[in-house]
């Protein structure tokens, strides 16, 4: 039940909303100020109505205030905004970025989140060794090692629990994930087949910019929902992302592509030829 406390010319309404994980009571409050021309009876009647409405909002989760942490608000933002307004692929992408955001900033109350907190988070993302998906490069002799083993490529792929296409890419020198490298190493029972790509242990500026967009979107919603007065992300300069020119095929490569299409199904040949024709027309 809501409790009411008179504070000068206004009244503070407090509602208990249970206990948090640490056993501390969760209390939500609002302040109501009567209009100057209201009578005592009108004030009492309206105050009771405000208390009932506020308690109902608290119980149904409709009331949010600046005391809510970023972690708590992110759940509400994903449910009430992202899942309803955005494509499922975008929502999944946002969820994939959340663990790092919440680990660094999730414990901070929205009304206490400052630009320097966000800047420190971005600086941390720029440090060496932050990437959790470091790629591993196979040694140059891996193709010969596999030939000398008792495995065919198909049998090795099955033994390692990976696709044949992934194995072929590895044999051709493409980088793979740590999980894939470990599976191939275990299947062949040979150590030293892979080494981490040392230059690949930092997050790209474009990836850090994605974290900025997610944070900014969440905090913009918090402003629109009147939970906080301003978005601290608006006072932080986002990471600079260089615009890379898209690679294009030269005449020789284009001729090779068209030649390769001769053995492909007509639907693929038609689609690619239409794309090439459109690109040539646009140029």
What gross morphology would you assign?
elongated
Strand order of the largest sheet: 1-2-3
- Note the beta-strand portion: 5-15%
Number of helices: 11
- Computed over alpha carbons, the radius of gyration is 29 Å
Summarize the structure.
The chain has 283 residues and is mainly alpha-helical.
Structure description:
This protein has 283 residues and is mostly helical. The chain is built from eleven helices and five strands; from the N terminus they run βββααααβααααβααα. The protein has helices at residues 40-59, 70-85, 88-105, 115-125, 142-148, 153-160, 164-171, 178-188, 205-224, 251-260, 266-282; strands spanning 3-7, 10-19, 25-32, 136-138, 194-196. The strands form two sheets. A three-stranded antiparallel sheet has the order 1-2-3, with helices on one face. A two-stranded antiparallel ribbon has the order 4-5. α2 packs antiparallel against α3 (88-105). The chain is elongated and about 95 Å long. It starts with a strand and ends with a helix.
């Amino acid at each position: 039940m809501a409790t009411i406390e008179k504070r000068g010319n206004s009244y503070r309404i407090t509602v208990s909303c249970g206990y948090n994980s640490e056993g501390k009571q969760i209390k939500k409050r609002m302040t109501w100020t009567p209009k100057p021309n209201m009578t005592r009876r009108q004030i009492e009647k309206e105050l009771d109505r405000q208390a009932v409405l506020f308690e109902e909002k608290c119980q149904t989760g409709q009331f949010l205030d600046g005391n809510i942490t970023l972690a708590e608000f992110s759940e509400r933002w994903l449910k009430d905004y992202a899942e309803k307004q955005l494509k499922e692929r975008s929502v999944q992408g946002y969820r994939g970025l959340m663990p790092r955001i919440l680990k660094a900033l999730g414990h901070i109350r929205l009304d206490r989140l400052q630009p320097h907190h966000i800047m420190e988070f971005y600086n941390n993302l720029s440090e060496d060794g932050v990437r959790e998906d470091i790629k591993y490069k196979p040694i140059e002799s891996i193709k010969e090692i596999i030939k000398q083993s008792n495995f065919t490529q198909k049998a090795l792929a099955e033994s390692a629990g990976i696709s044949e296409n992934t194995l072929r890419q590895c044999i051709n020198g493409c980088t793979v994930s740590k999980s894939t490298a470990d599976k191939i190493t275990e299947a062949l029972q040979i150590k030293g087949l892979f080494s981490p790509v040392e230059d690949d242990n930092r997050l790209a500026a474009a990836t850090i910019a994605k974290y900025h967009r997610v944070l900014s979107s969440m905090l913009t919603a918090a402003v629109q929902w009147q939970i906080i007065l301003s978005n601290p992300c608006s006072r932080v300069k986002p990471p600079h992302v260089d615009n890379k020119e898209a690679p294009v095929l030269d005449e020789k490569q284009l001729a090779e592509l068209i030649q390769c299409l001769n053995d492909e199904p007509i639907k693929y040949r038609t689609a690619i030829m239409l794309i090439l024709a459109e690109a040539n027309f646009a140029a």
